[in-house]
Amino acid sequence: MTTMPVLSIIVLTPALAGVLIALAGRGPHVPRAIAAAAGTICLCACAWVYATYDRAAAGLQFIESVEWIPSLGISYALGVDGISVPMLLLMGIVMFTGVLASWDITERPREFFALLMLLVTGVFGVFAATDAFLLFFFYEMAVVPMYLLIAVWGSTRKDYSAMKLTLFLFAGSAALLIALVLIYWQAGAGTFDLVTWAQTAFPPEFQRWAFLLTFVGFGALVPIFPLHTWSPDGHVAAPTAVSMMHAGVLLKLGAYGIIRLGVAVFPDGLSNWASLIAVIGAINVVYGAFCAMNQADLKYVIGYSSVSHMGYVLLGIAMMNRFGFEGAVFQMFAHGIMTALFFTLIGYVYESTHTRQIADISGLMRRTPLVAAAFIIASAASMGLPSTSGFVAELLVYLGILTRSPLLAAIVFTGVVVTAAYLLRMLGSILLGEASPAVADLEDPRPVRLAPMLILAATIMVVGIAPATMYETIRSATGPLLILVTGG
Amino acid sequence: MTPLEHAWVLPLLPLAVFVFVLATGRRLPELVAPVLGIVATGTVFLASLGMLAATAAGSVADISVPWFSAGSVTVEIGIRVDPLAAVMVAVVSFVSTLVQLYSIGYLHGEERFRWFYGAISLFTAAMLGVVLANGWLLMYMCWELMGLASYLLIGFWYEKGDAPAAAMKAFIVTRIGDVGFALALVLIWLNTGTFTFEPVFAAVEHGSWAGPTLAAAALLLFAGAMGKSAQFPLHVWLPDAMAGPTPGSALIHAATMVAAGVYLVARSFPLFEASPSTLMVVGVVGTITAVMGALIALAQNDIKKVLAYSTISQLGYMFLALGTGNWVAAIFHLMTHAFFKALLFLGAGSVIHATKTQDLHELGGLWRKMPATTVTWCLGALSLAGIPPLAGFWSKDEILLSALHTDQYGFLLAGVVTAALTAFYMARTTFLAFFVKPGAHSQSAHAHEAPWVMTVPLVVLAALAVLVGLVGSPVTGYAFGSFLGEHAKAHAEVLLPAIAVGVALAGIALAWSSYLKHVPEPDRYFRARFVSGVLARSFLIDELYENVIVRPLMATSALLRRIDHAVIDGVVRAFGVIGLFVGGVLARFDRAGIDGAVDGMATSVSSGGEQVRRIQNGNVQTYLLLLVASIVVLVVVFAR
Predict the structure, then answer these.
(1) Residue A140 needs a FRET pair 20 to 30 A away by CA distance; which of A4, B237, B265, B294 works?
(2) Angstrom distance (rounded) from CA A218 to CA A486
(3) Which of A162, A168, A471 sits opposite B68 (nearest CB)?
(4) Which of residues 157-196 of B touch A (CB under 8 A)?
(5) Would you give the DSSP letter of residue B565?
(6) Phi/psi zone of residue B58: left (φ > 0), alpha (ψ -120 to 50 degrees), beta?
(7) Burial level of B405, CB count in 10 A (0-12/13-18/19+)?
(8) Contacts across the A-B interface (CB distance below 8 Å)
(9) CB < 8 Å to B190, chain A
(10) What number of other Cβ atoms are within 10 A of residue A189's Cβ?
(11) Do the chains contact at B70 and A476, CB–CB below 8 Å?
(12) Is A402 within 8 Å of chain B by CB?
């Protein structure tokens, strides 16, 4: 068992499934069946990694390494620590539920699922890679199918949004590529191994600018203010499963990259820029919440709420203390699940009503009590209400912020009230009242569409009520990271 | 394990009912929901009797389990059963049980009948969690859950015009206070490393935690209490919350949840005692709220609104008591108020059920038609007005005496004035609803007494509204105070109670002469501009908030959204336009270059230009290919 290359299984199964799907027939049945099978395999494998990861030992585990381009010191090297394990689990859940949420895709299902699987491989690869070049390779692999998935299967201004997203992400990639080459050259060890890089003492001045480069490069994906405008547009245009992965996981790639490449390799760089990151994080939280309050389209509300919620991740990182780091990673997981749930629900409603305008939808509580209940759970997590995963994440981040700066905490807390306001405005409008004409024929989903909602809602509650395992996993990695940063 | 340590099971009973009702939905036979709900809370009530007996005998349970832990840090949650918790469990489960019994009649035939029981059970579970928690963390968690249940119940008739808005308002306004609670949690943790009451109290007592952070934590906790207990200036949600079904209002927005703020301060009292200035803040806010609520209640014509403002006022009274440093008096009044205010709400529900109106001017003469409701209502009203020997008299007396003994004459005066106002508005409401001759618009003609499931709770609550005060009276040697662990104080005072009763009687007499003795023309007090323009409109505080807070916030939101679109995204689009332009120029240069001598440099520039142009044309696949290709080139170059 121990020699089984479980990470490779996770990373490569979707790619293999993508190839099989591409070879399959035109009908929707075979592609989605293959995708679902791959989803099941990946989810089980991710759950297995999560369950068996040795939290006491910490560090990188499930290591696999094969030389790829020896002359450059590039390896196909995989391994996971306490930060990547929750991310793998997140991606496993979002992948599985995303496939089910796309069950009724009728337009070119073969291409859709094939590209989706390619995207998934890219994301899994980023979380599992311990070689910077490999990580970058997978990162690009995740971004390319994104463009096609939005441009072909999207809605509302899909060409514009797909293009915008791609340009932003490639601008970020360009910064990253430069950073990678610079780091490789500066490290002088002839390797892209992230662990080696993390152990290399880069000169402070180099750390300072290299960190900024990686922060901006990955930050565009987080998205950091003011590089965020592609993100809500992208959410809105993307088909359901892609929105789920986009908001649920892709944004986390950015934050993950900042931690993996920025914080771990350039701890001094973080100390240099921490105040700036904190300010950007606070702007994300408050500004995103205010923007969300004034949106008419459900997806835009959640899109801007993502901008707001990812601000907590930035704040947590910028606090450079244990609660901040733990909260940041916890929030990455919590936010991933809650937005995936939101987009599943919105996607379901949109498919049958063909509208996402808040003004057109009302009375869901009456028409579709289960969908309404799931909306409430997702919103509760988004508001950080206790017994949801969002509460634990936000509590940790607040502990981190308040240790550092009460003033900042006060500013961020205005975001909390505004968050409650925009979510309740949305809920009050779409759930309550008499059923509007648009939802007259809407009914609670059949099992295959209901399953993703249940799985995601259950994850929110389980992690919120019993956060111990998740917390210990994260802590096993953020603890050493903090020592690196504070030098203590 | 002692029996008390099993008390953690109690909140799970109603929680199980909630889950079951939710899971079964319409498949559940209609009457099973109330039966399950009543059995669950009834069991809790019986258990609470055991808890009262056990804690009276001196045993206390306080157990914690780790919630999550890593390294040196363990976050614990747990329960504490002591006299205070036992009293609260008893009150909550008792009122909840009666309200559920009553609702069988009140909500009979309602489409979401089962759902009501689900929500009430969820609420009861959460509230039991609040009062059983042995630390602020679990308390806060249940506190928010309680808020959610409240949201669901206010929005119960969500198709009705004002219910969704009221539910949202309640949630957001209390959330503002809860931000304070959450910040207090963080402060407590950072200063003591635990959320559990006892170690924190020990730290405060030993002085290892003192100074401004302690005072700040106390005040932030109080902010949470202000939101939940509808204290000025966060009181605005409670009157609107009356859009929910009346029995729900009785339980949540009168008897129990809104009193949770009082419980929070009483439970956290060592934090407040350590910095007396915070107690002053509590007392002043309570005083303002008590007087303000009573004044507004004078001018309300909706029977539920009268009771809502009365609740706000009485909660202010409890905070006034806390401000004088007497948390026992506050809890005593919390208990008596829970019984008589639940009684009054259920009585109002009975009236609304019979007449389908809540407008006092559309009622009148109900005493002939609804004798049981009338008698029980009157007992509740007299208890609230503080007429001896009813329950309200004893608890109110205790608060006034406490203000007197601590020489806080401002609080004392406000307390007496509120007592007079309370007696007046309750008498006015009673006369208008039950005793005046029905007017032209009266809906009383076809009213009839409610079924037994509704009148039995009324009678039981009336008995308590009359008798329960005795536990805190000289008759029982102030048993309530000594049970909670405070030694009986000197009570040899006759003058003050006499004055309080005197002003209450005067208030009733004035109402009698204004509304009953003379046939009332449509409320002549309303001719006074102050009454109709200011009191009836609740001091225009809602309008003030609308103009000063809500609109500016919405405007900010609209503005930021526009900025996001026009400025920030504008820059992005400008880049696009510039790129297009540069691409165009380079493409032209390229064509010109083809005619001329083409050297290697020009080719590379022009292909770059072509590249940009292609992106802008939407041919991004080419770009992607090139990007991948360039990575490959890089690799090859390096690999050499």
Answers:
(1) A4
(2) 23
(3) A471
(4) 158-159, 163-165, 167-168, 171-172, 175-176, 179, 182-183, 185-187, 189-190
(5) I
(6) left
(7) middle
(8) 157
(9) 399, 402-403
(10) 13
(11) yes
(12) yes
Q: What is the mean pLDDT of chain A?
A: 89
Based on the number of CB atoms within 10 Å of its own CB, is A63 exposed (0-12), middle (13-18) or buried (19 or more)?
middle
Q: Do A385 and B638 touch (CB under 8 A)?
A: no
Q: How far apart are CA A227 and CA A175, in angstroms?
A: 14
Cα B266 to Cα B352: distance, rounded to the nearest angstrom? 35
**Using an 8 Å Cβ cutoff, are B262 and B277 in contact?**
no
Higher-confidence position of A462 and B523? A462
To the nearest whole Å, the CA of A280 is away from the closest chain B CA by 15
Give the pLDDT confidence of B509-552 residue by residue, as tens digits. Answer: 888 888 877 665 666 677 777 777 788 888 888 888 888 888 88
Using alpha carbons, select from A116, A115, A76, A67 the residue that is nearest to residue A95.
Answer: A116
- The interface pTM score, or ipTM, of the predicted complex is 0.84
pLDDT of B1 above 70:
no
CB contact at 8 A, B407 and B338? no
Q: Which residue has the tokens 């750390």?
A: A207
pLDDT of B482 above 50: yes
Give the model's confidence band at A247: pLDDT under 50 very low, under 70 low, under 90 confident, else very high.
confident
Nearest to A133 by CA among A185, A172, A191, A87: A191
Q: pLDDT of B202-234, one tens digit each?
A: 999 898 888 889 999 999 999 999 999 999 899
* Cβ–Cβ gap A472/B189 under 8 Å: no
B634 → chain A, closest CA residue: A181
> Is the preceding peptide bond at B520 cis, omega within 30 degrees of 0?
no
A159 touches chain B (CB under 8 A): yes
Tokens 């369950």 found at: A51
